[in-house]
Specification:
With 74 residues, the chain is of the alpha+beta class. It is 65% helix and 14% strand. It contains two helices and two strands. The chain has helices at residues 3-9, 33-73; strands spanning 13-17, 23-27. Strands 1-2 form a two-stranded antiparallel sheet. A hairpin with a 5-residue loop joins strand 1 and strand 2 (23-27). The model has no long low-confidence stretch (mean pLDDT 79).
């Protein structure tokens, strides 16, 4: 492991950046179960968003398949 990597891993601060651009910096010594709960809720929200995206993709694929089937019969 390089010295730079080791210094980063041993740092006093953890930076958390979300896809929405929110940025929280948490002091490792003060990372609480409340902080962990917030991150878990964020993960759960992301999982819900991913499931919605998957459903939307499936719906669009089915719609395209139906359109292609109709065009194939013309």
């Amino acid at each position: 492991m390089s010295q730079t990597q080791q210094e980063e891993e041993e740092g006093d601060m953890v930076e958390i950046v979300t896809t929405t651009g929110d940025r929280d910096v948490v002091d490792e010594g003060h990372f609480t179960s409340e902080s962990a709960q917030i991150l878990i809720e964020d993960i759960m929200g992301c999982n819900r968003d991913l499931e919605n995206v998957k459903e939307n993709i499936n719906d669009v694929q089915n719609k395209m398949k139906n359109i292609i089937d109709v065009l194939g019969r013309v």
